[in-house]
Amino acid sequence: MKTLDDLETQLGGFAGRRVLVRSDLNVPLDHDRRDGAGQPVITDDGRLRASVPTLRRLLDAGARVVVTAHLGRPKGAPEAKYSLAPVHARLAELLPGVEVGFCPVTVGAQAMAAVDALADGELLLLENIRFNAGETSKDDEERGAFADELAALADAFVSDGFGAVHRKHASVYDVALRLPHAAGGLVATEVEVLQRLTAHPERPYAVVLGGSKVSDKLGVIDNLLGSLLGEGDRLLVGGGMVFTFLKAQGYEVGKSLLETDQLDRVAGYVRTAREKGVELVLPTDVVAATAFAADAEHDVVAVDAIPADRLGLDIGPDSGAAFAARLADARTVFWNGPMGVFEMEPYSHGTRAVAQALVDGGAFSVVGGGDSAAAVRTLGFADERFGHISTGGGASLEYLEGKHLPGLDVLS
Length: 412
Prior knowledge:
Blueprint: H1 4-11, E1 18-23, E2 29-34, E3 40-42, H2 46-60, E4 64-68, H3 85-94, E5 100-103, H4 109-116, E6 123-126, H5 133-136, H6 140-151, E7 156-160, H7 170-174, E8 181-183, H8 185-198, E9 205-209, H9 218-228, E10 234-237, H10 242-248, H11 263-276, E11 279-281, E12 285-289, E13 298-302, E14 311-315, H12 317-328, E15 332-336, H13 349-360, E16 364-367, H14 370-378, E17 388-389, H15 393-400, H16 406-409
Parallel strand pairs: 1-4, 1-7, 4-6, 5-6, 7-8, 9-10, 9-15, 10-11, 15-16, 16-17
Antiparallel strand pairs: 2-3, 12-13, 12-14
Helix pairs in contact: 10-11, 12-13
Catalytic activity: (2R)-3-phosphoglycerate + ATP = (2R)-3-phospho-glyceroyl phosphate + ADP
Enzyme class: transferase
GO molecular function, one term: ATP binding
């Protein structure tokens, strides 16, 4: 992939050049809380902070930077709750001394006029790219027509939204076919980290998977047990998905989250792990509650004694200690998915135990984006205490599945 340095050389410098940057600014918003300007509160600005180095590099070189990004999943038309206006305010704070404008549309005469008004070293954030049906269209012609409009705004394109590179969208894939292009620093770093996880990882290699559903992780588990993990490596499973593993081994799981259609497949994973010498680590105790609520009655119970009227919402303390022990001597760790409902304090301790184990251990640790990244920050762990915190949960998983990602392929 071309780097920013390569693109700068190709263009004869960035000064005065209009550079369209596809960033990942898809941050979580709390619509029940408002800031001083009446905007929803951003609860985790990690993706915004991760986008700043590439933007700053271009701005300092005199580029006229036009940023496009998505927020949420609007259906190809404007929706007020998905506006990037709150993101604009925070981005301006993260770029002190830079004129940061906001355009309420993405393409057309108004957008072109706003771009034309930019001076060297200024930035313009366009409104949510997914307010346009052409962005996500499966029709190549419709998507291409929208990409033509985007390309008309710029002299070059920089792909820096790693969280979207697994999508064949206009602002991710098609624009790169129309303009001189390069990978931004964030995308380049993410790819370097993922290659380290997949090419020649230092062993023992431990993978921690959590989150709600086994069905969300089928592809990555297939590839982990098929090629990435070998004898002496470990696969640790927690979160809501673990109850399908427990049920597949004959345990009753009460009212816990369960995917009955995946029981046979999960039983196959257990057999494959045993045959390959991969240690499959499951919890021995869980926190079982009477309801999905922080104030519900809850107790720690063994996995073979989950009451029929309760649901598991976290791994238990013995399991947290066991997981930490199996991570202590690992040399490479990839973690995707919390161990419980970390947003509620009574069910946050399993996730905290895994995070603490990574901080205390000597492994190259990668936190795989999404809820995992939000969890470690919510629990008070600084980003720099981990080897890498990914900005793209879905993209990271698809890379680990061995899939080709359109947004990376087009840059190669």
